[in-house]
Amino acid sequence: MDGLVLVAAGSSRRFGGRVPKVLRPLGGKAVLVRALAPFLVAVEKMALVVVTRPEDRAQVKHLLPRARFADGGATRAESVLNGLRALPDGVQTVLVHDAARPLVSADLVRRVLGAARRHGAAAAVRRVHDSLHRIEGATEGKPALFVEPVDRSTLVATQTPQAAGADLLRRAYEELGEEALKATDEVGLLHAAKIPVAAVKGDARNLKITTPADLALAERLLDDDF
Fold first, then answer.
1. 4 near 39, Cβ under 8 Å?
2. pTM above 0.85, yes or no
């Protein structure tokens, strides 16, 4: 059996407003409901844990009454650890997905899950296409200055889903201790524990909603599907 930890515990500080971004409507459904839907299509047998803030639990439970729940932590890594602990026994491969990525495809879910089963761990990535430069020296009243270009040929931006064997994730948390809670995603966590992670080609549509402009873009992308 596979497991999904759907991370929906962010404060939505950059999005603004009283309603968390994952509970905002997108094409007539809550963002987190859309984020979950492709996993229900792609994964044959799956245990689901939704990680939420305590104050959002009742609303999320109303939307997803059959899910297990875990409380969000002080960091994303702590939230994922809480979700991992809430999964039932027997889960062999764990998928982790940001509930703020509502346009993930079932195809991408299948490819990440398949790569994790073959290689132990995997994550969706996108190539970096913009020119990259290192800057420094910003002070009050003075802008930062360009220092040097950065070779982008081996750089990628990570997306979710990310996936790994449940035993590998638990091992990484145990070996790293408090340091594990500083990881910004599962790739960083597993890499710090010297566990290889396979890169899987991601999807430009698999955007993460951070601001109202991102939500508006997601609405336009949905409209283009019809």
1. yes
2. yes
